[in-house]
Amino acid sequence: MLGFLKEPVVVTAKINVNLVALTVMGLISRLWGLCYPRAVVFDEVYYGQFVSLYMKRIFFVDDSGPPFGHMLLALGGYLGGFDGNFLWNRIGAEYSMNVPVWSLRLLPALAGALCVPLAYQILVELHFSHCAALGAALLILLENSLITQSRFMLLESILIFFILLAVLSYLKFYNLQKHSAFSRSWWFWLLLTGVACSCAVGVKYMALFTYMLLLAIAGLHFWHMIGDQNLSNVSLLCHFLARGLALIIIPMGMYISFFYVHLALLYRSGPHDQIMTSAFQASLEGGLARITQGQPLEVAYGSQITLRNVLGKPMQCWLHSHTNTYPIRYENGRGSSHQQQVTCYPFKDVNNWWIVKDPGMQQLVVSNPPRPVRHGHIVQLVHGITTRYLNTHDVAAPLSPHSQEVSCYIDYNISMPAQNLWRVEIVNRESDTDVWKTILSEVRFVHVNTSAVLKASGVIGASLPEWGYRQLEVVGEKLSKGYHQSMVWNVEEHRYGKSQEQKEREVELHSPTQMDISKNLSFMAKFTELQWKILTLKNEDTEHKYSSSAVDWITMDTNIAYWLHPTSGAQIHLLGNVATWASANAAAVVYLCLSLWYLLRRRRKLYDISEDAWQLWVSAGGVCGGGWAVNYLPFFLMEKTLFLYHYLPALTFQILLIPVVLQHLSDHLCRSVLLKSMFSALMVAWFSSVYFVYCTFSPVTYGQPALSPTELKALRWKDTWNILIRKQ
């Protein structure tokens, strides 16, 4: 029974020494001195705020992209025991002892280190020599800008890692296609392609371009499979479904799951709540939820409500009135109705309360049982404190003369009768008999007499002058001018009115709401709203000292000072390896020129290289050149503040193109022994220059050792570089 113990257990394994050595060198280059400097470096001031909010479970919205990258940074903080207590308000601020600097910077550094062996494997899977693959990996290893970006709490190294992993996984899957279709390894690499794509997109939306490139390549490969007569229709269908599942369905599911985890972690109310709808805010612990918990769900005649404008940007505001009237004449000489002002007020106030009244009855309390208001019902809105009715008429609004003024009606005993009937239209209704619901219903109020819609025009325009206390303008807008979210309102706070007497009602309006019905949003509703906010909510783009244009990146005419020591000349810059950047540009030009030459020659039935060599050249260009193009060219169409680090994903693909071009030149143009020897000597000299530049700029890549002013001046190879030199 125990006979197997008589023989030794032998394990045989193949170890790629190149791969192991590259991985170790990558880890050393990215992890060495990772805690230095122990101060906030450039965009760590931005991402650190989100890490702290994750630690405290406080909800936030980042309009720069989806949450997966932020969660990975927060994971580093969690593993390091970070409690979130640090004020991220200044670049260069010293970290307190409770901030686990090494742990926070670890995951970006690991991702940057693993990009080195990934580059090696991608070239191998593209069927280039191990020498070319080794060259690609070493170029990534010695690229100063990639080292700098991966050593801090930033997202670009994580993004590049997942992009390269997706490319490598697809190439491995494709190379298994002919001999091992539907095998375990085939499924593994196909599924890993989809997973890596979803992770990349989950870090930054820029990864969508690489994802689309891989989908296009996969589509082209499948198109070639359709022409393969050896594959049956059933087999083709299985291939199509497998790719659809792995490259579309699973990435979409994973992308949604990132938001599920994000929302599950961030369940507490925070400073970013105000840009979300009332329903979303009420689903968070604290904040609005404390006010709205237990409110009546259905709005009834006699309900006391506050109405929040749905648009909510640039600031949230509520329908509001006060005893002051519009001036008889405005500054431009136009006259007004001199009625009571109605505005949109960006703060909670007792004057935000309104009472929903049945036009056919005088009572301002809820009957028993309550009579709910439905879509299409006619109502009057009575201001709770002043008891005047919401009104509009054919008088020009103060700031929007083409729209109608909205007021609370004062009877001056002149020929201007009250026009205070409003039709309730539930915009997000499921049927025409829907009941008006607290928080959930998005409602439009259409004026019965003039068909004007109640609109918070001040939300997207200017505020009223001093006579209007700088509050936001509310107007009646004609329906013919189209739909806008500023025309839509929702009930935020709600109670069933019980007091018929005005003095008792004022006391009631000042008291908190406490009733029995509550309603929470589903995850998909919250996901849809949050996704829409991320895509549409954009901060105002402002010029930054280190912002640049996409044209500047090619020749590296710009740099970014990430950190400066408060006393010495030690500093860290995002600055690339000049030799590598110039070589990458040259490789792209050579590839383009040779490709055009080959195409013209092939059109004339002249074949300079074999068909296998041509297919290798085209496939490598599609991956490396295509990767560069899709990650670079879209920036010319973007209206946003751009920085040099935006170019790093494109640069990575362009670097991979260098050994592709060099091996092609060596194999097909250097045909004599002498030419090959000369080419090899040039390669040694060229790579030595790459290493020399890396060493020269390593003090501003790692921030140490500190350099003297003279040494710093010597590093200013271009007049456009902003190397910081202290005055002596």
Describe the protein in words.
- The chain is an alpha+beta fold.
- It folds into 2 domains: 26-261 and 547-715, no CATH class; 294-513, Trefoil (Acidic Fibroblast Growth Factor, subunit A).
- 44% of the residues lie in helices and 11% in strands.
- Strands 2, 3, 6, 7, 10, 11 and 12 form a 7-stranded antiparallel beta sheet that branches. It has a 6-stranded antiparallel beta sheet with strand order 9-8-5-4-1-13, with no helix packed on it.
- The model is unreliable at 514-519 (pLDDT under 50).
- Pathway: Protein modification; protein glycosylation.
- It is a multi-pass membrane protein.
- This is Protein O-mannosyl-transferase 1.
- Its EC number is 2.4.1.109.
- The overall average pLDDT, rounded, is 89
Q: How would you sum up the global shape?
A: elongated
Largest sheet: 7 strands, antiparallel
Give the assembly state of these chains.
Answer: single chain
Number of domains: 2
Number of helices: 21
Percent range for helical residues?
40-55%
**What structural class is derived from the secondary structure elements?**
alpha+beta
Q: Strand fraction band?
A: 5-15%
Kindly report how far apart the N and C termini lie: 83 Å
Poorly predicted runs are 514-519
Q: Got a strand count?
A: 15
Radius of gyration: 33 Å
Organism: Platysteira castanea
Membrane topology: Multi-pass membrane protein
EC number: 2.4.1.109
Transmembrane segments: 68-88, 100-120, 154-174, 186-219, 240-267, 578-600, 612-630, 642-662, 674-694
Please provide a brief summary of the model.
The chain is of the alpha+beta class. Helices cover 44% and strands 11% of the residues. The chain is elongated.
